[in-house]
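Task: sequence in, structure out. Protein: ROK family protein.
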Amino acid sequence: MGRYLPEYLKSQNRRLVFDILSREREISRAGIVRITGMSFPTVSKAADYLIEKGIAIETEEESPPEGGIGRRSRPIRFNPDAYCAVGMDFEGSTAEIGVVNMAGELLSRERFPFSDFRDKKALSALGSRAKALARKKKTRVLGAGIGFPSNVNPGTRRIVSFGTLGIHEPVSFDELFSPLIKNLSMPFFVENDVNLAAKGELFCRGTEAARSSLVYMTLGTGFGAGIILEGRLWQGQNHKAGEIGNTLAVPAGKAPPIPLENLISAGAINRKFNVTVEDQPLEDERLKKRIIVYLLPYLTAALYNFVYLYDIEQFVFSGSVPRFLGSGLYTALERELSFLMNTRGRSISIVPPSSESPVVTGGASMVFEKMLLDQFQG
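Result:
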């Protein structure tokens, strides 16, 4: 215990200084002392460690002392390209891989056809492409974060369930996708794709939003949600939290209730309105309005319940259906919710994702979260 406590405190000090530096981008040691209340020697040791790792760079310019008293100091500047990470996403019939730096910037990415998780050659090629993309970067790549379209236990790397492959009992991701892992040749982490999108959204919003709460919803072939509560991903007892599409809905005059996503998914919209939901916006304004009017009662009820179950007011809405219907869906949904909430002193925000590749960004953020903590612990 005697050794553990100093090492733990050292890693926490490094993490705190890192968080401040990544938020401020450039700051003096004295500025960090003022923000944290830590002693100057403690801050200097943590800053020197970050400089040694290349995460921070000491600038040549000297800044005047605060209040005009004391020595001039050299600010340190955040170097987000010191480390990068790979993010991986599977969406519909495509796979996307990207390299992301510590500022959440997407440095490079590739998209290509991929639809069969049973295809070992395709899995092997995917691992090779991700490794090749990572090697193009001159900075060190810490690992890969994989967003998988199923319920996953990230701690054990086991798939909890995956209907596409008929998996209803926990199965090892490592064993099932060994061709991908073998060719990837780097440390990796796996998580549900919508959960990673939620983490990616938080990552893109910066450290100031690190303890905020939000719900990231995606509506396409299904309807799922990633739930962030005070900066932490809520996964649930069985790693199935956020399966909002499986909540029950009772259409007017119909019984028994049926799963919500059976009524509002892309497939349901295709059947009801004789259209093909795709990523390109729908041009027929009359049809667009009809679909939005149809979806509003279901979506409004889902978000309203989230607000009162989790005390959350920030929502991110993504997926093929919102992209297909465009800004009109966001406007109508926010208007309906605002009308319901105004008398209750709430202000609801419903916005598109901050990143064009939220799952990829979230995968990278998971790598930084895991690997940098190991780095800070020495």
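Residues 285-310 form the longest helix (26 residues).
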